[in-house]
Amino acid sequence: MRNKFMIFMTIVMTLIIFVGAGFTTFLLLYEEDQEVIKVSLEEGVPEKVEFKNLAMIPGEVATFDAQIYSDIRSNCTLEIEFEELTDKAQNNRLKEYVVAAIHVNGEFLCEKPLSELLDGETLTLEDCKLNNTDGLALTFTYVMPLDVGNEAQGADTIFNVVLTASNE
Q1: What pTM, to 2 d.p., does this model score?
Q2: Beta bridge mates, 61
Q3: Which of 6, 25, 41, 79 could form a disulfide linkage to 70, CB 3.0–4.6 angstroms apart?
Q4: What are the distances in angstroms from CA 46 to CA 27, 33, 66, 141?
Q5: Options 2.60.130.10, 2.60.120.260, 2.60.120.1540, 1.10.10.10; which CATH number does 32-166 get?
């Protein structure tokens, strides 16, 4: 009877250890990388936010929140540009595999491959209400799809997000 109890307890403890180790591994590998960036814009002056060494594994999600403030009192236009920094990166191959989604104050703006955004596309937000107290919340979410294989192994990318506010 005592041997059966010991075998049962050994099995239960082994299962608990494996479940705990698996859960911890999941949290470490698939945890969202969330960073809040505060940007203060002057009218017509571009402000660059650099994303250094964005290196991801398949299934990984990286989220960056930016709070945009400005002393512009009236509605303004906000331009969002993606600028590739190929001279700083050893390889910029990751852009081919990552999908970027952008939300403004929680509302969906666009979802495109990072390579398209880095090809010089400018996103324009009309009638933005920027001020020094509330700000504008931009959320950049980068996702590496699960179906990406070994071709992305060791790839990374470096780029700027250029924000420009103008009162037009």
Answers
A1: 0.69
A2: 143
A3: 41
A4: 37, 26, 15, 22
A5: 2.60.120.1540
User: How open is the CA angle 124-126-130, to the nearest 5 degrees?
Assistant: 105
What whole-number distance in Å separates Cα of residue 148 and Cα of residue 163?
30
- pLDDT for 168 equals 61
Q: How many residues does the chain have?
A: 168
Tell me how far apart the alpha carbons of residues 118 and 167 are, in angstroms, rounded to a whole number.
Answer: 25
Whether the pLDDT of residue 35 is over 60: the answer is no
**φ, ψ for residue 13 (rounded to 5)?**
-65, -40
Q: CA 150 to CA 167: how far, in whole Å?
A: 47
Strands (DSSP E) contained in the chain are 33-41, 47-54, 61-70, 76-84, 99-104, 107-113, 122-128, 136-143, 157-166
Give the pLDDT confidence of 95-137 residue by residue, as tens digits: 888 899 999 888 899 999 988 988 888 888 888 776 666 778 8
Distance of CA 9 to the CA centre of its chain: 44
Contact 136/102 with Cβ under 8 angstroms? no
